[in-house]
Amino acid sequence: MKRSNNFLVGILKGAALVAAVLSVAASCSKGAKINATVEGAPDSELVLKALSSNKYTVIDTVKTDAAGHFACTVPLKEGQPEFVYLFSGEDRIASMILQKGEKVKLTTDLHGNCSVEGSPESAKLIEVEQDEARFANELASYNARLGDLDPLSEAALQVRRDLTKSYISYYRSRVKYVMENSHSLSVIPVLYQVVGDGLPVFGQPTDAMHFRSCCDSLMTVYPQSQYVKALDEEARRRKNILDINAQISSAQEFGYPDLELPDIKGEKVRLSTVPGKLKMVYFWNSEETTQKIFNFETVKPLYEQYKASGFEVYAVSLDTDKTRWATTVRQQGLQWINVCDGLGGGSPSVVSYNVRTIPTVFFIKDEEIIPSDNVKDAATLRSFVVSNLR
Length: 390
What we know:
By secondary structure, the protein is of the alpha+beta class. It has helices at 5-13, 15-29, 120-147, 154-180, 187-191, 208-219, 226-254, 289-306, 322-332, 348-352, 378-389, and strands spanning 31-39, 45-52, 55-63, 69-75, 82-88, 91-98, 103-109, 115-117, 194-195, 199-200, 260-262, 268-270, 278-284, 311-317, 337-339, 360-365, 368-370. The protein is built from eleven helices and 17 strands.
């Protein structure tokens, strides 16, 4: 709340005025106060909604006076801004990002032409939506022109070139926006924008980096925000897809999905760089007692006996508790390559190797995965390793 020097002097002069100011401050502290004017909507019923879990939740129903004015307070928690929207029937006519303690002046009409004072985040959100609307109109114009042309004509080809150029320009402008405003919640709707006939603006696998970068920046400002937590999940999902694509690409070179996961020191180890005549990719979980027994009674003696002959183990733990996993590795003295990304069943490695149960083993020889369906127990495992090391 802004106060001039004269106002501060006035406060010191009268206890009654102090009490009045404290009363207003207490009211504002409950949330964000909105004073709104909706042009063309006198004596109308409007609805305020918050965005939560990809759906709208009604906050309040408000009634404008004869001049289209209303005032209300949106309840908010400290450090947890909300995306709040004003609806007239089914039409969204105003968008805001409100923070606790803000005093917002909103002016809008029934067509959604709005402006906001007193809420910097809301001003950015409005700017983002206006840019998106302009680009949508631009795309619609190109598509209308294409509809009037012979698809095979040079004119139609030129329009498609111009449309592509326009899309690339818009994409670059959105990348610039999220990079320059990475600490603003207004980047979230930008990252999720869909244009034309369902084309995501940030739809390339490599855009996962923008999701991750923005999420990490927002976490430093709004660690408790539901929107940032949801963005974190999406960033993880996109990173997994990016990793899988990279593994598929490397599989064309190596004949198997390559993996690059952190060991107990946090240093990433790439499967394709692991030497050995026969490599065993071993999926397990340190939480299971039977698998720890399998480590100690079967894999460890086999590894110690045949490591010098070119047998290597790349053990992928599907633990989510990395501390427990690292402790087990040390306590059991597992000297082979042990890696874990802490994502459990959500690890990209699970998808890459289509792991259904654990423990599961795959064998790589001469840069190819070799059939090992009959490896079911300790005896067949030993026999398989020995025969493939000859």
